[in-house]
Amino acid sequence: MSFANIIGQDRAIRVLHSMLEKDEINGAHLFVGPDSVGKRSVSIEFAKAINCEKKGFDACEECISCSKINSLNHPDVFIIHKEKESSFIKIDKIRDIIYQASLKPYDAKKKIFIIIYAEDMNEESQNALLKILEEPRDNQIFILTTSRVSGLLPTVISRCKLVKFGLLPQAQIQELLIKRHGFSEDEAVLFSHMTLGSPGMAVAFKDKDKIRERDKMLNDFFFRKRAMFREEVCDEKKYSDLKESLQMLLFWYRDLLISKFTEDKTIFLNMDRIQEIFSYSARFSAEKIERDITSIINTINYVKRNINPKMALFNMALELERQ
Ligand SMILES: [Zn+2]
User: Fold this and answer.
1) At which of 164, 186, 218 does a domain end?
2) 97: nearest Cα among 134, 139, 129
3) Which residues pair with 161 in a beta bridge?
4) Whole-number Å distance between alpha carbons of 197 and 184
5) Please, what are the averages of pLDDT over each run of 10 residues along the chain (323 residues)?
6) Is residue 173 in some structural domain?
7) Is 19 a domain residue?
8) Distance from the CA of 196 to the center of ligand 1, in angstroms?
């Protein structure tokens, strides 16, 4: 795909380009920015540019190295993330990185380790990783991506060169969704609003038919099936991805709150249900909606950290029901 084809993140790419040109790529890099804005894609493009056989400061997309990385099959490029059923990156994975890092590259210039959601490493794993971050070899590059810098040890952060990623402007997200992901224009407008500038989330929302899930959730909640809502919301398996579902609920409440202060329809996320937003929000005070938003945010944090998510969901459902 090469850097040239990444839509948005121009600033981050400029920083990486300049590192490539000055040959200052060694050591560890920390890609920081909101979830699903392209940190992983840019990591992979960076790895391709570094190991590309044509040495053009970008991926040529033709050499063996570029094709192997494209198919995630390169023996010297490692992508590390937590297993689906696990709540953190296991120490064994970090031990494996340390072992791999002790070996010379197999057939590339550099061995590259990309750790996705680096905050998923617990303290033990981060401390283990720290040892190699402190004494990196010339032929090793580490890329850590995170949306939650507070989940990383200060000692780890201090070993990394920071590269900042931002949210994409609406127009760029819509262009990306239409060109890359086959969205219709209407879908692009709706989903880009609904996901607050996160193309990754927009694609996931469309794939998982999140609009229907949202409508079902709202119908259950608002059309007086509250007891049922409580049961459903507490059933983690009911929703295809709990974090995304809670995020959607949060966006809905955000719109309810905004409707108390403005009638400017362009700033709503759930653009397709504006009438209902106004009729629902009329039933609650702004203070009540604010309390509910806090409760949803707390629950998202509990679920993210896997701290008794069932209890957190139950408490949230009770809080939302309260008048
Ligand atoms: Zn190449």
Assistant:
1) 164
2) 129
3) 29
4) 17
5) 83 95 93 91 95 90 95 94 85 94 88 95 94 89 95 96 91 88 89 81 84 79 58 57 82 92 86 88 92 91 81 85 77
6) no
7) yes
8) 34
